[in-house]
Every structure is written in structure tokens, then in C-alpha cells.
Predict the structure.
Amino acid sequence: MPALNLGLFFVFFVYGVAFLGMGIAMLLEAGRSPALAEARLLRPLAVFGILHGLHEWLEFFLLQASWLGVQIPPQISWYRVGLLLLSFGSLLIYSIQAFHQSRPQGAAIYLALLGGYVLFIAGNAIASYPGIVTTDIPIPGFADAMIRYLMAVPGALLAATGLHFQSRHVRHEGRLSLAANLNLAALGFMAYGLTQLLVHPLPMFPAQMFNRATFQEFTGIPTEAVRSALAVIITLGLVRATQDVEEERQNEVLAAQQARLETLEQQEAMRRELLRYTVRAQEEERGRIARELHDETAQVLSAFSLNLATLHNSLPKRADVTQLVENLQNLSRQMSQGLYRLVHDLRPAHLDDLGLVPALKYFIEQDCCPQGLDASLEIKGPTRRLDPFIETALFRVAQEALTNVTRHAETEEAYVQFSFEPDQVTLRVIDNGKGFDPDELFIPPRGWGLAGMKERVEAVGGQFRLHSAPGQGTQVEAVIPATELVHLEKEGSCEND
């Protein structure tokens, strides 16, 4: 194969690959584009790239066949013209849509100039048609020239104009990289449109003076080499523009995800704050009720008991009356004890006065042991007072967990571990009872105790963990990080101020 053929083979190969790559890239971008208008705009451009790339390879195949003296059926030439017509027709559709979408200033002037050009070429072709017939110029060659003159040149120039004004629009939006790549594609289309004026020599103007032969004779460069380079420039500009758009799309998705995450975090913070407020209000209400019961109802019962004792001493020694007063005194003592337990359950005085650890010890000794539960308390680390809100939450968790052991675990032993660590405070309540499946769906009111423990721990910014399995006991764990300890201590000091 001659050296010229090898050079043209490389030129046509690059020519076809460039437009095929551009077409596939535009087709993929049309599939990713969220806007239907953008998809409609890119599909004709994708069709142009694919068809025109195939056309260039077919043209080179025909050129090689002519060099080698191989006879090609005439229909193949018409297939090539058909590909050319469809490809530049798709380009013209794209360019009209792009031109209309960009709405360039002076659009009427552009259209008037192109209209005048089309009329000029058409008039020359009509005037020169008898000459074409008498000189036996092949009709496919004439059709090739007319397609390039009347479709390729206007289509490429309109596409260049539309891309240029689109570039100006996105530049005003601050999208500089996209604007630069659109401008690159616009320059490529403009130069590519001008090269379409270089057709095979024909006995008509301007093909008589400006054609492929005169261009190669003047410059020493085949027209296909220039068009191949411009195809690479167009493809490079459009592909990089799609990459810019994809990067912007990804940034928008990331921004939307970040905004959604921030919204969820705000909602979670509001939920925690509301839960914290609810639990705090609940404990405050418990404390208020406990104080009222202790200060008012307990005093009334004490006075009632004293009056009964006075009545017992002053009444005549009648057995029936004495027995009745003694029954009233027993009922009064039972009411006082019940009231004391109620006040203690509502708000343990040891918790406010002495702190969490003494309150837990008292609860284990006075409440768990009488119910037959042998519970031990283990303290790790240096004991210190915590924020009252945290102490209340941890006490309620231990109280609920030990109550659950008494009611459901079917065991007589439980272990309470409390760890004071530099970075966190941890409470664990462990039993070796029958256990259960934590993933089981409980029918209310079953499961409310676990939900309440979890809510209390989360209300103070902690983590609630539950480990259990049938036959393997249960471990309830509440972990309060040091950041929450500091936060609540600051919050409490602000409230006191």
C-alpha cells in the first residue's frame, strides 16, 4: 500500500473515531440529562456523530477500492450519500434547536445571511445543472456537494453560534470551565463548517475555484486531514463540556445530600432536645408531686395518726371501740408507708441529696432484696457527682432494668456495674436469667420499659445497648460520653444563672 494511502488511512480512522466517540458521549449524556429539553437537544447531535463517523469510514473504503481498482456496486455510493444526508440532517436539526435555545442577539441577521447564502448556492446549482449533465459528472458527487453546501455549512455555523452564545450565558453564571469547552466546540464547528465549502470539483461556483483539489494544491494538506483535526477539537470540547456538566451534577447531588443530612441532623437534634425537655419536665413534675405529697398529705396523715392515738387513750375501755381505733391506727400506718414508697418512687431523696451511687445502693437494699433479688453493685473508677439530669436518667434505667429482672428474668441474681471513666460514664445491669429475643415485636404495653430506658439515655446524649438471647441472660448498657457530661453541666449552670 502506498505511503499516501497509509497517511489517509490514519486520517480517516481518526476522523471516524472522533465523531463516533462524540456521538456516543452525547448519547450517554442525553440518557443522564434530567431535563427532557436537553435530551431532545443532544440526541440529534449524537446521531450526527455516529452516522458521520461511519460515513467517513465508508468513504475511505470506497477511496481505497478506487486506488486498488476494485469494482464497487453503484449502490454503495448512494449508501454513502444517504449516510451523509442523514448525518448532516441530524446536525441541522441540532443546530436549529441549539440556535433557538440560545436566543442570540441579532438572530435575524444570522438567519438572513444564511438564507442569502442558501439561495446563492441553490441559484448557482440550478444555473449550472445543464453543464453538469453534458459533462457526465456523477450525480452522487453532485448530491454530495449540495448536501455539504446546503446542510453541512448552515448546520455547522448555526451550531457554532448556538454553542458560542450558550458559552456566554454559562460564563455569566461563573461556570468558566464549561464556557471554555463550549467555546472550543463552537470554534471547531465554525471551522468545520467552512471546510465543507471544499467539495469535489464541479462546473459551478464556488466549486470551480474552491474545492478539495485547489486546497491541497495550495496548502499541500488533504482536506480530510483538516476536517479530522477539527473533528478532534469538536469532540474534545463537547466531551469535556459533558464532563463539566457531570461534575456539576455530582456536586449538586452531593450538595443536596449534604443539605438532607444537615436537615436530618437538625431534626435529630430537635428530637433529642424535645425528648430531653420532656424527660426533664416529667422528672420535675414527679419531684413537685413528691414534695406536695410529703409536705401536705404526709403531714395530714401524721396529724391523723396523733389524733387517733389521743382518741385511743381518752376513750372508755370498751373492747369494741378500742378495736376500731386500733384498726384505724393500722390503716393510718399502712397509708403512711404506702405514701412514703410512692414519694420515694416518684423522686428518691437519696438521689438529690447524696447522688447516684448511694441512691442505687439504697434502691438495691430496700427494694430489690425484699423482693428476693440478690443484686450486687460494683463501682469502677473514682466516684463523682454528675449532672442531676444524667444521674436521674441512669438511676431510672437501673431501676427499670432491675424491675424487669424481678418480673421476667426468672433468676435471683443480678449485677450492677458503674464505671467512671475519663471519656465516658457507663452503667451495666446484667442478669443470668432466661433472656429473650431483642428483635421480637412486643405488643404494648410489653416493651414500653425498654423503650423508656432507650429514650432516657438518648435524651442525655448517650447510647443505649441491649444484649440478650433466649437462655443466655440479658445485659442492659447505658453509655454517656464525656462531651455530653460537659454540655449538660454547662447547660445546667446557665439555667441556674
Remarks:
- The first helix runs from residue 3 to 32.
- Residues 493-497 have pLDDT under 50 and may be disordered.
- The chain has two domains: 3-262, 353-496.
